[in-house]
Amino acid sequence: MANPETAEVAAKVTLSSESVEKSSPIKEFWKKFKKQRLAMVSGIFVFLLIIIAIFGPAIAPYSSEEPDYVNVLQGSSWEHLAGTDAFGRDIFSRIIVGTRISLFVGTISVLLGAVVGTVLGLISAFYGRWVDSIIMRICDVLFAFPGILLAIGIIAILGPGLGNVIIAISIFNIPNFARIVRGSALSVKSTVYVEATKSIGAKNGRLIWKHIFPGTASSIIVNFTMRIGTAILTAASLSFLGLGAQPPTPEWGAMLSNGRDYLSTSPHVTFYPGLAIFLTVLAFNLLGDGLRDTLDPKIKD
Amino acid sequence: MLRYVIKRLIGIIPILFFVSIFIFLFVHLIPGDPARLVAGQDATLQDVEVVRQELGLNQPIHIQYFNFISGIFQGDVGSSIKTGRPVFDEIASRFMPTFWLTFWSMIWAVMVGLLIGVISATKRNKWQDYLGMFGAVSGISMPSFWMGLLLIQVFAVQLGWLPVGGLESWQSYILPSITLGSGVAAVVARFSRSSLMDILKDDYIRTGRAKGLNEHKVVWGHGLKNAMIPVVTMTGLQFGFLLGGSIVIETVFSWPGLGRLLIDSVAFRDYPVIQAEMLLFALEFILINLIVDLIYGFLNPQIRYD
């Protein structure tokens, strides 16, 4: 959601006396971004998640895979903050250990999709004509499969498993990045400075990489953040459907799926992993919204 | 307008062509021998060869493609490996439950989404706006299967008001529709808010206010009518996400629809069913996009003359 008022305020602040001194783009970005309180909080939350992802197994109070048949399906308590599952495993510990999986799958799959999509988008915009037509038609075909369906189709070919989930979600992200990068590259391409560089005889590769690509960077960053939330959600959905992580992997979607059998007696087994997914995706989406309002107020949903 | 319709219709032909190739190749991309898959693991080499003949898998690939396409036009898309019944029959009996589920989800999602969007836009930066928009971003971020299970837990297990799953009466539609539509409601709310906010800045809105129209008329009569144009497009596109979302929701609610059939088929590697479902979902999505494009062209004359 673009918030012109915040942007206005930010613009005034930038123009005020204290910032007349040299302001780098990063400083300016930071000044605007600080105004977005929700996005700031989300950014801190995402940072914490990254810390948890790195140190997960070391900070988890219990083992994530060792069964404990004395404490099966216990509710929340001081010993087990989020209770235990059907094997007596501490759900809180499993959520902590699972953070790494969700963040890794989400980030890597978007990264792969973003790299391929960006290259395709740049080529498409720069060369135009038939190259552009072919790349855009391929994107149309990928776009013809709604939502999660393309990922399911790809997993039907490759077989279930987390690795294949990453491949499936990467492919699912390619057309998205290709279109967005193409769009913003087209507008950069027609600017005077690109024309000027071209006229002094710069090679195509240099033109694309050094001059057009940086101009598309902000839309790539914004889209990247926004897509991570969706990617984590899609990966969790696929694991929930039994197509992704397999037990006993502490993947959030798979944990939730395991809890379905105990829904009437022990709802906490499904509740906490779902809450973890929800808060993580929410944080990435709010961060993405904030980045968009700061970097690229022109883009809307 | 007619020229625009024809242009759009011609435009989808290459997409249809490439989609059909993609789905046709699907069988050939699956690791292992499809004939062996159909014949079963215990079948003799001879049996496998017979199956290969029957399915036409020994013919050159372009002939196979041709057979595949002509099969689609005759409603013959092979038989399910799992049940042996024609895929067409399998899908036909599952179509309506999914159709009605997506339909009702869409209806409530658009109504509630629009309402939240309009309230947020008119009460901009007040608590209603913050609440509405926080609700919307939550709706987008919430895992649908989690929400579905929470609703089951509260309304079916604890309160016992509504069925846990399956499709027996109209009450069976309530929880799955709420779950499936929530994401779309959120997107519609966000989109209609920003669209209406843009419009409310326009001159003719100021004129409306200046000539003493009450705020209600200005917003609902003048503003919303014009703000709707981009919202229509966005909403149409959301249909695709509903189709995708139904796959997950149907699994949560044991819904006898296309989505659950697809998941069962993937687990069983029942590729003729997977293939037909992918095709059906893609066709539906392309068709909806086409309709949206046409409505858009109808509402916004500028688009037609590009």
Automatic annotation (TrEMBL), chain A:
- Fetch the PANTHER family from UniProt: GLUTATHIONE TRANSPORT SYSTEM PERMEASE PROTEIN GSID (PTHR43386:SF3), OLIGOPEPTIDE TRANSPORT SYSTEM PERMEASE PROTEIN APPC (PTHR43386)
Q: Name one GO cellular component term.
A: plasma membrane
Q: What is the lineage of its organism?
A: Bacteria, Bacillati, Bacillota, Bacilli, Bacillales
Gene designation: yliD
One annotated GO molecular function is: dipeptide transmembrane transporter activity
Q: Which SUPFAM superfamilies match?
A: MetI-like
UniProt keyword list:
Cell membrane, Membrane, Transmembrane, Transmembrane helix, Transport
Cited PROSITE patterns: ABC_TM1
This one is known as: Glutathione transport system permease protein GsiD
Membrane-crossing ranges are 38-60, 101-126, 138-159, 269-288
Q: How does it sit in the membrane?
A: Multi-pass membrane protein
Its function, per the record, reads: Part of the ABC transporter complex GsiABCD involved in glutathione import. Probably responsible for the translocation of the substrate across the membrane.
Q: Which organism is it from?
A: Virgibacillus oceani
* Main subcellular localisation: membrane
ABC transmembrane type-1 domain: from which residue to which, for each copy? 99-288
Keyword Membrane belongs to the record:
yes
Q: Which family does it belong to?
A: Belongs to the binding-protein-dependent transport system permease family.
CDD domains reported in the protein's UniProt record: TM_PBP2
- Specify the domain of life of the species encoding this protein: Bacteria
Q: Where in the cell is it found?
A: Cell membrane
Automatic annotation (TrEMBL), chain B:
The record's subcellular locations are: Cell inner membrane; Cell membrane
| Molecular function GO labels | nickel cation transmembrane transporter activity
Q: Name where it mostly resides.
A: membrane
Query: Which parts of the sequence belong to the ABC transmembrane type-1 domain?
Result: 95-292
InterPro entries per UniProt: BPD_transp_1_N, MetI-like, MetI-like_sf, Opp2B
Q: Does the keyword Transferase apply?
A: no
> Could you give one GO CC term from the UniProt record?
plasma membrane
Membrane topology type: Multi-pass membrane protein
Q: How does it assemble?
A: The complex is composed of two ATP-binding proteins (NikD and NikE), two transmembrane proteins (NikB and NikC) and a solute-binding protein (NikA).
Q: Which family does it belong to?
A: Belongs to the binding-protein-dependent transport system permease family. OppBC subfamily.
UniProt-listed NCBIfam families? Opp2B, PRK15081.1
Write the protein's name.
Glutathione transport system permease protein GsiC
Query: What is the organism of origin for this protein?
Result: Virgibacillus oceani
